[in-house]
Every structure is written in C-alpha cells, then in structure tokens.
Amino acid sequence: MTYLRVLVGRWSRRDRLAVLVIALTVALLVGAALLVVAAGDQTRSLAAEYDGNASVDSYDDVDEATRTADPEDVVLPTATAVDPGGEAHRVVAIPEDASTVGLPDPPEGTVAPGVDVDAGNESWRLEGSTGTAATTVGAANGDDTIPPTWVRTTPETLAEVGPTGALVVSPSSEGDAPLIGALEFFTHGAADVLGIVRTGIAAAGVIVAVTLSSVVRMTIRDRARTIRVVRATGASPRRVRLAFAARAGAIATVGGVLGYAIGTIVTNAAVTAAVVVGLPTTLSVAVTPEILRLVVAMLAAVGLVGVATGYVTARAATAKPPARVGREESGGSEDGPRGRVRRVGAGVRRRLGPSVLAPRTILPATATLSTFAVIVLLVASLGTVGASLGTAGTAIAEPDAAHPADSRVSADYAESLEQRGIPASPEILLFASHDEEPYLVRGADYGAFASVSDPRLVEGTEPTADEDAVVGVELADALGVGPGDELVVGGSTDAAVGMVTVVGTVETGGFADHQLLVSLPTARHLSALEGDDVNQIRTAAAPAEDADGEAVTVVDVDGPAHVAPGESVTAEATVWNPTAEDVERTLEAQLGDDEASRTVEIEPYEHRTVAFELATSVADEYELTVGDVTSSVVVADAAPLESPALPASGPPGASLSVPVETIDGEPVSNATVRVGNRTAETGADGVAGIELPADPGTYEATVRAGEREHTASIRVARDADRDPATSVSISPSSPSVHAQPTAAVELVNPWNRSVESPIELAGAEASERTTVALEPGETTTRTTTLSRQPPGNHSVAVATGDRTLATTEYEVVGDDRVVSALAASGHHRADGGIETAIEYAVGNLQVLLGALTALAAVTVVGATSAVLARAIRARRRTLAIYRATGASPRRLLGIVLGDAARIGVVASAAAVGVAVGVLELLAVTGRLTAFGISLAPRPTATVALAVFGGGLVLTLVAALVATLPILQRPPASLLAASSARIATDRRERSAPGSEPEHDQTD
C-alpha cells in the first residue's frame, strides 16, 4: 500500500537526524565494548608471565584438609614449635611429594632458623593437638617458598604430637591465595574495572534507550496527520502499529550500523593518539569473535528497542479516534485553581525560563546529559585506581616508576630522616589476591607506619610479632576477616607461601584502609627484594616538587689528580635535578683560595655537566669542592707516586714484578723498589723485578723516585697463595645521596706465572662474583655500579675465597634536602616485567577512560542537538518574525544560546543528581570496587562542578549546531513553511467531527 511506503520508507531531514543521534549513541556503546574487551585481554597478557598456576588454602583441621585435597594436591600439616628461649614458631611438615608443586624437599629430621651450626643441634619442644614432644633441631639453610622463620620437619615427626592445622598447595589456581599474586591481582582487578565500566555503560544505556524512545516518538508525532488519514480510510490499528514499528526499527538499525563504524574508528583513533603522545598502552582494538558476538547482540538490542518503541508509541496514537490523533488534550478552564496555578507558573517561566525554546526541552536534555555525567563520574572514580597504581605522595622512590612496587631504595634512608626528626616508614608493596578479591599488601614496621599515617585502631591490638598483621577497615569488610583470623598470603612476583594472624583493624582515611599491613620480614619473604632494599620510604616531609634551586644536587666532580704550579684546573661537575620542575641554581666551586660560580637551569630529572676554571699557585695538596662533593688535586712540579701494586701476601723467595707509576698513570723509570733488605730499580717501562725475602714475616715495601716516596706492606708466609695485586677505588670519591658510585677493581698479576682466582666484590648492598685469569704482568679492571646509600661511611671489600685482597671506605654526603630526593632518575629493571605490566595496565586504563569520556561527549552533543533542533524547529515562525522585523542572525543566535544556557543549567544539575544516584546504586550493590579499593560514589565538589560545567558547555555547543542551519535560511522560507503548517491544521480543525485544539506552533 502507498501509505505503508510513506510511513516506513519516506524519511525526513528529522528522521535522518534521528539516525545520526542513534549512531552516536551506538558509537558510545560499541567503542566502550571494544575498549573493555581489548583492555581485559591485554591486562591478562601483560601479567601472564607471573602465572604461577598454583595456589594455597589453609585449614584448621588436617583431616578436613586431607578429605578436601585432590590427588595432585600437597597437604602440609602444621603445629607449633617452641625454641629453648620460649619463643613459639610455626612448624610445617613437608611430605615427599612437595617438590611437585614447587615446594622444597623434606628435611632430614627437624630444622629451624637461627640454630648455631657450630654449636650443634638444639632441643626444641613440639606442641600439637594430642600432646607435646621434645625433638632435636638442626640448622636450616636456604631461602625458598616456605618462610624462613618456620620450623620444618617430616610428617612422621609431627604426627607424634598431632597437627593443629594444615595448608593445601594445589597445582591449579582454584585455591584461596595464588603462590604468585601479580597475575591474579591484575586479572581480577582489571575485571573489576571493566565490570564497573560495563555497569556504567549499561546504566547509561538505559538513559540512552529513553533518549532513543524520545527521538522515535518525535518522528512518529510528525506523522500524526498521516496516521489520521490512513485510519480514516480503513487501515486497522494493528497495521499502523506494525508500520511504525518497522519504521522505527529501520531508523534504529541504520543508526546502529553507522554507530558501529563510528565507534570502531573513534576507538582506533584514541589508541593511535595515545601512542603518538607517548602514553604507555598495549591496547589493540580488533574485531575478535568475542567482540563480534557482543556487537551483534548490541545492534540487535538497539533494533529491538526501536521496533518496540515504534510499536508502543503507535499503539498510543492508534488507540484514539482518528480525528484526535496528534491532538493535545484541553487544559481545562483558565478560571479554576489549576488555571491559576498555570498562570503563576507561566509568569515564573517568563521571568526565569527560556524566551523562545519550550521549557519541556529540559527533560530530554537531562536524559542526554545524564549519559555524559554517568560516564565522567565513573571515570573520576576509577581515576583513584590509577592513583593507587601510581607513585604518589611524599616518598623516596624512583620518580619514573609506574608503581612503588617497581622501585628499589635502601631502607637506611629512613634512618637518615629519623635522625633529623622526620617520621619515615620504609615499606614494601605486594600484589595479592584472596578468593578472587585483589588487594595490595603493605610491608612496614607498624610504629614507623603509624608515625606517618596516624592510623586509628578500630578493633584488636597493634602487631608485635613478625606474623602479626592488621587490616584496613574496607579490606576487612571485603575479605570478611577480623582480629583472630588467620590469612594465607602468596608471593607477589615470585612463588612464596606465608601465613599471618590478623590482630587488629585500622582506619586511616586513605588507601591503607583497603590494604593488609604485614611486617617487613614477612613482606621481604613474599617479595623479590634483596638485602635491606624496600620499594619506598614514605615521610611526612614536604614533597620534592616544592623544593627550590637548592634541590639541584652535585653527584660527581671530575678534575685532574695533579697539575704543575701556575696551571689552571678544569673541573667538571655533574649535577642532577631530582624534582619534577624546572630548577635554577647557582653552583660554586672552590680550589684553595680561588672560587668560581655558574648559574644553570636544569629540567626535571635531568643530568648536566658544568665546567669550572680555577687557578693554582703554591705547591700543595688541595680539596676541589663543588657543592657537597670533593676530590683531591696535587699541585707539584712532579706528580706523586701511586701506591705500588703489591699482593697482600706471597711465599718466601717468590719473584715479583712491581710497576711504579705516578697518580697520572705515567710509568716512572729509575725508581728504587725495596722489600726488606732487597732492592731493585725500574726500567724504562717503569717495572722492577724483585724477590721476596726468604724469611716469613711482614715487610715494608718502599718505592722511591727522587724526593717522591710511597710505602706499603706485604706478608711473607710459606702457606701464602699467589693472589693478584688488587686495589679498589670509588668514583666519585665522596658521592652524594643521589649518586650511584662506581667501584673500580684493578687486578695485576705480579708473579712470574699465570694466576686464576675467583673474585668477589661486596659492600654497599652490592655483590658481584667473577673469575679472572691473568698472564704474568697482565692487568685487568672490573667495574661495578653500587646502589645509592644514605649519608655516612660505607665500605667495599674485594676477596677471593676467605682472603680479603683489598678494602676501601667512602663517605656519602648529604644534607636536609635528602627528604626531597628521589632515589633514582629512571626505572630499575631487575626482573624486567612487573614494571611493564603496571605501566601498561595504568596506560590502558587511561586510554579506556579517556576514550569513553570523548565518546560520551560526542554522543551528548549529537543527542542534545537533536533535542534542541526539534525545539528550535517548532519555534521557527517566531524566529522568522524576529528576522523579518530586523533582528540580525547574531542577535537570534544570542537569544537561542541564552535559552540553551537556562535549559543547560537545570538539565546539567539534574544530570549530576541522576549520575550520583547511579553510582550510589552501584556502591550499594557492591559493584563499585576495583583492585581491592571501594570507590567513592559521591564526587568531590570540584568534580561535581566540572561535570555541571561540562554539561552546560555541551548544551551550548549542541544549541549552536542546531541553530546555525535555521539562521542560514531566509525569513520568507521559514514563514512559508510555518504558514503552510498552520493552514493545514486549520483545515483539519474545521473538518466534520474534529474537535477544537490549541495551536502549538508558537
């Protein structure tokens, strides 16, 4: 039939605008779906290298553990062991098959930490469920997945006293706690974030469905005259409903397909833009089978919403007599109470409301702006997750680390801060998961933690033992634990097993409320840290960003070791800006009485070399000082002699080759070398051959060249080994707290035969082993970068076996600015993986949230433009009259934008309220949690004002988009279109059977 073709296939400009609005709406949903699935896949792949594929459960009864365990699981019975001093320890029985799940082999007997190997075995007491027994305990060695504080024994030994509990280690990941928590933390945490995004999009989708319904109803209302005609000519109501359902479904389907294309393009553009600006991200938006199924279901849902909306709207229209279709009901008498109320309301609207646009536009505008508000508030809430996964606050940590868990600093920094009266807490951060609930574990000394965070003990007591723990109030609710409960904890990036007893719950008002606080020894076992390293040191001091030019630190000074009198000294100082701001500082250099200064500007975290020219005069030894760093310069006609390269000891009568050099490295000929009563002279190459004395003892070895002399000592012994002559030096000689000094070990073979020795350098939290093979007279140098150390004296030693070959001490200089210093200028890449997972997980989250915000903004502009376009089109006669009476297009644009501002103020405020309600609902249903953090459903005043302002701006932009096409048309065309519509309405009102209706044009 002809009317079916008209109702279904003839689309007006307004219908095409409806298609665009639906397309933008679907683009938001499709873009969100693409990003959600891609982010989830990428997060899982980033942390996949930490998939330990094993987990651990704890049980209070060993029989229950045995019944529950699968055949491939390993059951570890536990009890208590008491040492000779009366201190209780956890004892665990390790069965023969423990190695199948990565556990250590069973010990021979019972072993415990702290037992003196030289003193022999000790007598301990085992306490179990059925009795006690004395047992002989040997020394435990090695560090593995079992805590070093636990006593280890055999199942047979523990069975004598009866186990009090058990651990079950499973090769699968179905247990409470994974042995490696990083993968579970990121996988479940990302699932939480993406679940929030899905829920938010679903909530926004409901609002979008309302907007879609409004748009479809507007297109049907425009066809009211057609409905009246086809009904009057005999078409059944059902046929009309199906026609409009097909029309609305077609509009929705076309809009959905177009929206799919827009959403795909925008999301790929967002990822590309993130890469261009340098944001770390691994997102790859591709249409996988999973995404295809999701998109097809989404497009089908959009089409069904269109069909249902068209049918329901047409049903309401066809339920009336044909003559009343599209007519408004009479408002009643203007003289009654309701009429007076309307008159009062009309007066208020005239004063405060829009002058051209209809006030009823506020409702659909609120619906569209609510979509934007929901997305932005979710982004703001999820932004706290990014903050919890990023280095923040006042702390000594690597400045570029994606997370403090990627940082390595010495715990000794805390001592330096405390000596200055500044509270400091060295801390280790771990990724953990319990029963698929991701959370962060913080290792700290509770007293130090309390001095910085000021926690309030809500329940229980403070921790006193290594296996005591306190839990934040929010995490306690999430995990369902409290004082007295035992909690099994796995490792973070390395496989480990731990058990803590919750002794209290605390509240800090910060992220610690969502974390488990354990002791540093427990955290160190669960982490990959070595020595005294921690991830960060939190302090109450002012952050480095507030530091002035004094924050610039001299980390090294390089100058000549010797110059002749009257020669100038060129000194090069390496300076570093450890802050996040551009800093200017004036540096001063001093050599004796001469001084020089330079002013430098340094960018954040930048190293720069600054040169100084200083004069010399009188021969002497001077200190070259720049900032806190010094080095020695000898002013003399001839360079002083270097210490002779002698071994620490040697056998009687052995032949030695002794090189003699100046401190400039130049060989010295005709120098005399004396060892005991034996002497020799150096040749042109600066080397003297000499034999050691025949009698054992310690002898002075003297090197003399003119007035220059240097003395060392050597031990002669029959059992002495032929070790290489060894010296070790530190550069810079007096490093600052920000510098990583270099230890240079020079090894010389002075013997007349080849030597091969294992060499170990140890000290300053560094340990490096190597084997050197040297031919007679050969020299080699090995360098090692030492870790940054707090102010004070530190030593480095070089040894072979149990013999020390050389030692040296150096002083780390620093001042009160150490509290503003960060421990490094770049990433630490020890394990090479976890920092990448964190960095890209945060980057992916930022791209996801940023793209969602952009899509929401575009959707709102399109949808609100459609709403305002309808309102403006309805008032085109009024606008035409304004134009015809002399109003300029700019004047009309100002009037419309003023009305849009009034509408936007009300609609934006209402949208913020709707969005807060949606987030409150998510919080009540437990859907507003990510990475173990319960997100705040109520925005701060700043965020709320930003959303309100953003909604108002988007409304004005939408009004501009909707108004410009109308203003570009001549007034006559607007009046002609409006007059034609009025004439049509009058003819219809005068037709037989019609009822009077109010003119809704103006």
From TrEMBL:
Biased composition (Low complexity): 727-737
Stretches for region Disordered: 319-344, 719-740, 979-1002
Cell location: Cell membrane
Record's bilayer topology term: Multi-pass membrane protein
InterPro entries on file: ABC3_permease_C (IPR003838), Macrolide_Exporter_MacB (IPR050250)
Biased composition, class Basic and acidic residues, residue ranges: 325-338, 983-1002
Domain ABC3 transporter permease C-terminal: 204-318, 852-971
Any one Gene Ontology molecular-function term assigned to this protein's record: transmembrane transporter activity
Main location: membrane
GO CC entries: plasma membrane
Keywords, ordered alphabetically: Cell membrane, Membrane, Transmembrane, Transmembrane helix
Sequence intervals crossing the membrane: 201-220, 294-314, 847-869, 900-923, 943-967
Record carries keyword 4Fe-4S: no
Highest taxon, organism lineage: Archaea
Family per record: Belongs to the ABC-4 integral membrane protein family.
PANTHER family named among the record's database cross-references: ABC TRANSPORTER PERMEASE YTRF, MEMBRANE COMPONENT OF TRANSPORTER-RELATED
Protein's recorded name: ABC-type antimicrobial peptide transport system, permease component
Native organism: Natronococcus occultus SP4
Lineage: Archaea, Methanobacteriati, Methanobacteriota, Stenosarchaea group, Halobacteria
